[in-house]
């Protein structure tokens, strides 16, 4: 009842202005809400990355353990010419100093490292001759190598593979920045090189712990030197996964449109009820993909 | 974020009572405290500084096992000897505490067996061991019989060369005082471990003798000589005759300093700031100035010091490179005062220019060997021991001054500028050194620069260069050992330098790398007569040549005669291509994916900020009825 009166009272010029202002104000409001929503989503992603992602790593570790047992007790891992397939458990790594005990998976891509520490495919399996490299995450996905920086020369690192138990003694620890020799390069020494990101959170270079084998190495097949793909160096993500993001965004748009249609036609409550799990699942998947674009040892 | 205030609060809570207890409570600091080393058989010299002790009490120091409670069985005791000999008494008197309650003194820490018979046999229930395997402490206090009243300061010891395995590949070095401390006591312990496994031994010899022994090669069993100077003409000729070759690889950098031990007669403390002019130093070392006390010039330069009476001047009695450097500097800076030291003698023994052998006239105390000279400055000699009568001064390498905890003289030039020997000035002094005809760097002795120490020393390893053509050339294993030592010296060795050394500049390290490669790479030269070789190329510029203000450039110690072209002449770093190891390691490359996370975080913050501004402005605009205008401004701000 009030509205027509007020509009009627206004001068000729003003209704035009208000008519233009109202939709414009609304656009701005929607834009503001959207931007805040984006910020909240990114905030949720950070929570996922530095907190919730450990669930994924713990679950992977639990699933890897029986597979590791069957591989190493009488399986192919006991033979001298065994070469692990990507994603297979390779070794059990334990560092008493930092209370670490994890299954090492084959591969150092961002995906592989979500499951735990990863073994560089181009390097020998731990316990065999040469420079064996294990990369691990420092701040995300359970952060197995979070406390690697407290390691000191003389600390012991134990590795169990299908070929037996091996003890390594730390000889040096330090960080390596771009331009310096990459510690994952092949070496004539029988050593274990643990790498993670340095500085933590930015992953410009590596934190490196080098440990020497205290016993004779176990026999293994000769490794042909090959180039390490850029997404398996531990410092890069997997840009190939970015394609999935597009699909997920399309799916999110579909869910949003469906929810709007549903709330208009049937009921807003039911729409929210139905859309919420879908949105959460999409968010979870999006976060997982985004995390794989980040440096693998982050 | 929350952690920070909590930590701060905790720190304050813990720190306040700690500070309250600390005030007026005795506290002691010892320098150095870790890596103690028996450098010369006199134990390790340490500086003990204290605070908060009762005035006029006498302060004592005892060396005991870590956490000792019973001084009779767990501490060094008077009446017994130790591996340090009589130099480290069982109870050392540090001095009287003055009215401030603070002070410092130099003490000696015995390393090895303590409380033994004179023949070093152990005594059951008495003998204790303080070494790299057995932790010890120093106890400082006013009642040496009651350890509970004394302040305990834990000390730790460096691994001595004796702890090295003896089965490494042997490498015998001989050389001057400047390389001794680092090679024999710091590096030998590092390279004797895996993976290098070198059994490195360094005998202290004057540089000339070391080079002679190097020329002898297999006969004297010297694999490398560590010297600050090249061979002189007769040595070069002898080397050519023997068919040997030499290259000079820089391995260590230090400086020659004037070290002193003078006690202030009023406070009883050791003087740590002493300024002298080049003329005064020349007169002191030629025996023209013999008294600290009542010397107008010295007192004018050091008005606050109450000097003892006599100057106990210590020099070297043997021919050596330190004396050569000292006299070269005197010749460039105080020639008139130096020459006048022998004006009543015919012929004047000081008029012949820089020399490696001081005339023996009884004018100053001449001691044989760098070890002897440093020891006399730090401890006195014979009857000359009373610190209330004498104050000692001598010239030693900076690494020795640091090991003996000796302060060094500040030089005041005639232009009024003062230069101190610090790591920074020594490094600068090395940067302004100029190459001589053989490519070795010599100090700009005459440069009167307050930022550059005038007598820096680069210690070169004289090594076989190119193909060795002596009658019994070094074995391949020996050359391997030499190569791995030099690689270590120019690489990791430069990060573990004892006090008194400065790291080698990159250009010099590169030169050592190049020479290390040449040991292996240079093909054997077919011409047996090096005299037929082409003239030497211009000296390679190793350090960046800064604008040097006309250095008087003292004549080189011994310019090689033009008829004998030294085989070293082919060392020109520019001509050599550095060959990387066969299995080339890859360099680390940073990935752009590291930028995603910071991008997301900043994006979120920006989105939040802009979103809040947009929402806020639209609400304000909606209420005030002036929406269009406000929105426009908000958009402007957002864009």
Report on this model:
The complex is a heterodimer of chains A (298) and B (639). By secondary structure, chain A is of the alpha+beta class. Chain A has a domain of 180 residues: Sortase (Sortase, Chain: A, Beta Barrel), CATH 2.40.260.10. In chain A, 40% of the residues lie in helices and 19% in strands. Chain A is built from 4 helices and 8 strands. Chain A has an 8-stranded mixed β-barrel with strand order 1-2-3-4-7-8-6-5. Chain B has 639 residues and is an alpha+beta fold. Among the domains of chain B are: 128 residues, Neocarzinostatin-like (Immunoglobulin-like); 182 residues, Periplasmic binding protein-like II (D-Maltodextrin-Binding Protein, domain 2). Chain B is 29% helix and 20% strand. In chain B, the strands form 6 sheets. An 8-stranded mixed β-sheet of chain B has the order 12-11-13-23-14-18-16-17, sandwiched between helices. A 4-stranded antiparallel β-sheet of chain B has the order 5-3-9-10, with no helix packed on it. Chain B is globular. The chains are: A alpha+beta (298), B alpha+beta (639). Chains A and B meet through helix 2 of A and helix 15 and helix 16 of B.
